[in-house]
């Protein structure tokens, strides 16, 4: 199973022979949302729009941002004015469920019909432009996997344990006395559970003993006041962003250092923004989470190479539009994440030359970014398309692996091995066990209810 011999190219043409005369505008309607996606003038303008949309989709949200729409934009998107939406006389009574179901069926049927209608136009006009743009990865194009290839992947890789998947889960208990964050990660293959690891972080606002009681109380109030101010601004990083960043790092480190399989499968984006931002933590002039993440990335992504990542909820509508035009058992190699990663490093990491490892992050993106390939695939007619990330040297093999694994869930079309890793993780480090252990500890401390939230004590 090497190279591209197992898959037949459906659109092998590159940029040669692609010419556009005049200005053409393709207007796609996605669901109930009408979007002018591309003003197609040249190949370069196409890539500019794609990269601009990538930056919008992938950038971390700014609480200062506002959605600015012209009045007709809202009406065109939703079929009614905002004033009409806010007018309570237009709202359906809760007991009139028949009318609500009728509109739901009507809207869904119209959206599906519309998507089916534009599929062939996307394939005939947009596919050649995307696959032929100057920044496209080597081998960009649309490919189909045949059934004998799926069977070989099942028998030769998946069912023999040559592919291992990793996934994590995190839980948090936040009380006035103590914040507890639990991060669990599991590693699985179809040969069985390969291991599970857990880390618990205990955050107390004050860990000082022997102070004068008044001084201790004042210090505690000051720390909690600062923490409350940061929580109001959604930037309490030690309890939120850092928790997600640590879990993302652990998933990648376990795939690198604990897995022994030939192929490694991960969940999400291999170079996630939580890690590329270092979870926003700068300690003594250093970003330790980013530094260690870069080391893992070099070894796993650029060194091991036989890996594949599949996000469960990608937000890039441009790539998903391409994926929606795929037929079952087709995949497409579309782009690289280089530009998005470059923009993020330049615009979001601290600018100070004393902050380490900003330069190392830039070097990693410049050298490894072009080696990463973004693709889309569809495993069955009933399932939605999904994006995937792979190394350029093994992109076709990676696509065949996720296709074969996803084909075993026709209704879902998502890799079953990732679902298995998630199920093992949730069952091992689930909320019930976590909450029960915390409650028992509070009982032992003589305060069974004082620090439990209202939701935790609901009957």
Largest sheet geometry: 10 strands, mixed
Q: How many helical stretches?
A: 15
Give the strand order of the largest sheet, numbering strands 1, 2, ... along the chain: 1-4-10-11-12-9-8-5-6-7
Shape assignment: globular
Portion in beta strands: 15-25%
- N-to-C series of helices and strands: EEEHHHHEHEEEHHEHHEHEHHEEHHH
User: Structural class of the helix and strand makeup?
Assistant: alpha+beta
Radius of gyration: 25 Å
The number of distinct β-strands equals: 12
Characterise the protein shown here.
Helices cover 44% and strands 19% of the residues. The protein has helices spanning 43-58, 71-78, 82-86, 97-132, 147-158, 213-232, 241-257, 273-276, 288-304, 317-324, 338-348, 358-368, 395-406, 416-428, 431-444; strands at residues 7-9, 24-30, 33-40, 141-145, 163-174, 179-189, 192-203, 263-267, 307-310, 330-335, 372-378, 386-391. Strand 2 and strand 3 (33-40) form a beta hairpin. The longest helix is centred in the N-terminal third of the chain and has 36 residues, at 97-132. It starts with 6 loop residues before the first strand and ends in a 15-residue tail after the last helix. The chain is α+β, with helices and mostly antiparallel strands. Helix 1 (43-58) crosses helix 11 and helix 9 runs parallel beside helix 12 (358-368). The radius of gyration is 25 Å and the shape is globular. The strands form 2 sheets. A 10-stranded mixed β-sheet has the order 1-4-10-11-12-9-8-5-6-7, sandwiched between helices.
